[in-house]
TrEMBL record:
InterPro entries assigned: PfkB_dom, RfaE_dom_I, Ribokinase-like
UniProt cross-references to NCBIfam families, sorted A to Z: rfaE_dom_I (TIGR02198)
Protein name: D-glycero-beta-D-manno-heptose-7-phosphate kinase
Organism: Paradesertivirga mongoliensis
Database matches in CDD domains: RfaE_like
Keyword Calcium: no
Gene name of the encoded protein: rfaE1
Signal peptide start-end: none
GO molecular function: kinase activity
């Protein structure tokens, strides 16, 4: 397993999706507001972090690979701060486009006593225009044609960066270059990801995307739903994350449920980002889909032990993956 993890360092992973800034207010609650029956949080620390698809970037980087993010931000101070954070993390900004037509997405979380109390979202989720999509595609194509890309991740948060047109063009480009494509979907584009290598919905997304009820504990129902999805998308593999039950992997030749490990769950925020990043680098390194799913499952569980959105610790993951 150590040799495999060393191979991650040679990889270039392109991430396309909805980036955002995760803003944190950390404090303590000692009284109730006289204005309304709500707690008053005395803020002691503020912090801004990369979020959304940018958290996938951080996870790819933490695993040792070189990530390149292709996304849009606003022409605003939040966008400038986002770029500053990218640079401070030694991450490329070559795939970022600044648009006047929309603000940079910011999600503000208020945390007290290690618990998230409220989240405030400032965003626009309208799909970017066809001209803006073409502009983004030109940036993506330029990067893919200039350098070796080992995998492309679509990190879709339904905020409007990814369109059916962009998906079709990028998947076609990837196939022409023999590049793996993996998808972390949301509702809007759920059935638009035709021909990708691996599609990774969670159970809620699977139910909503196919408009059917699926019992996570019933393997027959799971298999039926996943077969329907695989047929509709004509994708090679489907990996469904099942929270505490683990992961259902529908592979090229076989299928199985990979059980979750018992964890002290502190916060599930960002776990899906960690899972898709780990999946991409493992597949790009040549690992089979079932071991890939097992390692990604471990990674997702590990980050849930921390409060807030944090990237995976490669050494921690290697230590646990060595027992697989």
């Amino acid at each position: 397993m150590q040799k495999l993890f060393q191979q991650f360092n040679k990889q270039n992973i392109l991430i396309i999706g909805d980036v955002m800034m995760d803003s944190y207010l950390w404090g303590s609650v000692e009284r109730i507001s006289p204005e309304a029956p709500v707690p008053v949080v005395s803020v002691r620390k503020r912090e801004n972090r990369l979020g959304g698809a940018a958290n996938v970037v951080l996870n790819v980087q933490a695993l040792g690979a070189t990530p390149i993010i292709c996304a849009v931000i606003g022409e605003d101070k939040e966008g400038e701060e986002f770029l500053d954070i990218l640079c401070s993390q030694n991450l490329s900004t070559e795939g970022i486009i600044k648009l006047k037509s929309r603000p940079t997405t910011v999600k503000t979380r208020v945390i007290s006593q290690n618990q998230q109390m409220i989240r405030v979202d400032a965003e626009v989720d309208k799909v970017i225009s066809s001209e803006e999509s073409k502009q983004l595609l030109a940036v993506i194509s330029g990067i893919v044609n200039r350098q070796k890309i080992d995998a492309i991740i679509f990190e879709d948060y339904d905020k409007g960066v990814i369109s059916e047109y962009l998906i079709q063009e990028v998947v076609s480009l990837a196939k022409s270059k023999n590049i793996i494509t993996v998808v972390d979907p949301k509702k809007r584009n759920f059935l638009n990801y035709k021909g990708v290598t691996l599609f990774k919905p969670n159970l809620k997304e699977l139910r909503e995307g196919l408009k059917i009820e699926v019992d996570a504990r019933n393997d027959t129902e799971l298999e039926r739903a996943v077969k329907t999805l695989q047929s509709a998308l004509e994708c090679e593999m489907v990996m469904v994350t099942l929270s505490e039950r683990g992961v259902y992997m529908y592979g090229r030749q076989d299928k199985k449920v990979i059980p979750a490990h018992i964890r002290n769950i502190a916060d599930v925020s960002g776990a899906g980002d960690t899972v898709i990043a780990t999946t991409a680098v493992c597949l790009a390194a040549g690992l089979d889909e079932f071991t890939t799913a097992a390692v990604a499952n471990l990674a997702g569980g590990l980050v849930c032990e921390y409060v807030g959105v944090v990237p995976i610790n490669k050494e921690e993951l290697l230590k646990e993956a060595a027992t697989l």
